[in-house]
Design brief:
Rossmann fold; four-stranded parallel sheet; 368 residues; 11 helices
């Protein structure tokens, strides 16, 4: 009598790529913590049909070269079929070709470069594109009467994506943009800031990759005595920055993929994180998508099995999936459907910008 084959009890290995060292570790370390917390919950509940999830964490360093090496190891050595990451856009842009060649799903909860939209059938993300962040900011700024915006932009994919989206929309509706671009390793921005200040813009957009770089810029803006309207990317939601520069950032504006603090799943996530790690949930807009990415991936494995090609197809069918970040629906291009909302810093607190305007029509082209 033939015995039925034994059920596979081996662990399901899933990769993780994020910045675990350097300035961007401010994002990567909480991301790893949140993913580990979700995996622990899933395994405690029996895993996936009795199989435990085993995460393999790799340091992408917010750098393309490091991300390629990490992806190659996960795909070719560890033989994973899915990777959560990268976090930084530069990590994901570099990792996509390796993951695609290996037919491995690359699922990012944080990469927001518009260049990632539709880049590969094996890439999906549940964090929105910066085309939304940049265009929302352009409309809000224009509606407030600002017509000339100066950018201090770091030469990285994430800040560049925001700049391109802002510039395209702001110019289209009648605004003017000027920019000083600075290298990722730069620490002294006084020359660039002095040039921008001399141009007498209506606002300064601080467009850096990390909280540490943003901190250095704000410190030097303060030292130069430049009192102007500050605009920022969603790095500004980092609590330590808002507290440290409470006066300078009063009235500063940004656009963020916000959180619903009434969502029971978000409430549970924030509460458990503080219990486990002893601090408030950092970068809540990223935290919610990082947490959801693990549970979405597990639901996909339960639905279609653990294969990169099948998972990449399944992800694009997700509709109204309920998570800590709300109801999630994915587009055929691999992007989450939805976007950023305008916010303002008042009294050292980041909150909704209540006067967010209706979309601004593009400026008419003057007669030739």
């Amino acid at each position: 009598m033939n015995k039925a084959p034994a059920a596979d009890a081996s662990p399901i290995k899933i990769g993780f790529i994020g910045p675990l060292t350097g300035d961007a570790a401010a994002y990567g370390e909480p991301s790893r913590n949140i993913v580990a917390m979700a995996v622990e919950e899933i395994n405690a509940a029996g895993g996936v049909d009795g199989r435990m999830i085993e995460m393999i964490y790799e340091d992408g360093k917010c750098d393309g070269t490091a991300a390629v090496g990490a992806t190659q190891k996960l795909v070719n050595v560890d033989k994973v079929q899915a990777i959560i990451g990268g976090f930084c856009s530069s990590e994901s842009l570099a990792a996509v070709p390796v993951a695609t060649a290996g037919k491995v799903l690359l699922f990012s909860p944080g990469s927001s470069s518009p260049d990632l939209t539709g880049i590969s059938q094996y890439f999906v993300r549940n964090y929105p594109s910066d085309s939304s962040q940049g265009s929302v900011m352009a409309e809000v700024v224009y509606a407030k009467g600002m017509r000339k915006v100066a950018f201090l932009q770091e030469s990285k994919d994430y800040p560049l994506g925001i700049f391109k989206a802002f510039e395209a929309k702001f110019k289209a509706i009648g605004g003017e943009v000027l920019k000083e671009e600075v290298a990722p390793e730069a620490t002294d921005f006084r020359t660039s800031l002095t040039k921008l200040k001399a141009a007498k813009p209506d606002a300064l957009f601080v467009d850096m990759q990390t909280p540490a770089a943003t901190d250095r810029v704000l410190q030097q803006v303060q030292e130069l005595g430049w009192k102007t309207q500050i605009l920022m990317n969603d790095v500004a939601s980092y609590p330590a920055l808002v507290t440290k520069y409470k006066t300078l950032l009063e009235g500063a504006m940004l656009a963020e993929f916000g959180v619903d603090e009434t969502n029971p799943k978000y409430i549970a996530l924030a509460s458990k994180y503080k219990t486990v790690y002893g601090v408030d949930l950092p970068f809540p807009s990223y935290a919610q998508t990082e947490y959801d990415s693990v549970y979405m991936l597990v639901d996909g494995i339960k639905a279609v099995g653990y294969g990169g090609e099948a998972l990449s197809i399944w992800m694009r069918t997700v509709k109204d999936w309920e998570g800590a970040s709300g109801k999630i629906s994915m587009g055929a291009d691999g992007d989450v459907i939805g976007g950023h909302k305008a916010e303002i810093i008042m009294g050292g607190v980041v909150g909704p910008y209540a006067s967010a305007p209706a979309p601004v029509e593009e400026a008419p082209i003057p007669a030739q």
